[in-house]
Design a protein that fits this description.
Layout: H1 2-19, H2 33-46, H3 50-60, H4 71-78, H5 90-116, H6 119-122, H7 126-148, H8 150-160, H9 170-180, H10 185-188, H11 192-217
Length: 222
Amino acid sequence: MRTTSRALMYGLYDEFQISLKCPHAPPNSSFSICHAQAAFLSGVCEAMLCPLERVQVLLQTTKFHDKFKNTLHAFSRLREYGYREYYRGFSVILVRNSLSNTLFFTLRDPLKQRIVDLPQTSRLPVSLQHWIGDFIAGSLLGATISTAFFPLGVIKNHMQAKVGVKYDSSIQVFRDVWQLRNRSLRGLYLGVHLNFTRSLVAWGIINSMYGILRRALAPFEK
């Protein structure tokens, strides 16, 4: 699920850059309206994977362990409730993905350039400069953005951990979660430190590997 999601995120962003004729970054900055639009659209498309996230949440929910045996079985059982059931929580995913992608891709290249331009980094071999810049930029942005949008993930999980019941709006679910977490931000961000640590490592690896592959494949691009 996560591999497919990230592949779509990066791949569609590149495709939308081409379609929208965004200035190539680098040497141009990705901090532009055109790049923000490309990132936003990639997030919208990525949200179409909602059924996979839906099933993932159900399989991770304790009360459904006896009801759903595996991914295919969960998809089959959900069909009994109608196709709308696959997209429970879609609105929250759409907001989270589109906005987080916009922030990540518009800030990624400027932040990387700042890191590469540091005196400590500029003395290193060029390939190592790129790797360090990609890793640190991906780590910082991924961890920060995922932390900022953490409450949306909590709301989404509460919406998707239900089957065959009334559809509540995201606002109503937020109110329910807010009450459940004792009406405190600390309660709303319960578990965020684990999410931050995971994102710090995962996004650094993802972004640096993407950079390595892009540079390796650059000679074969038209």
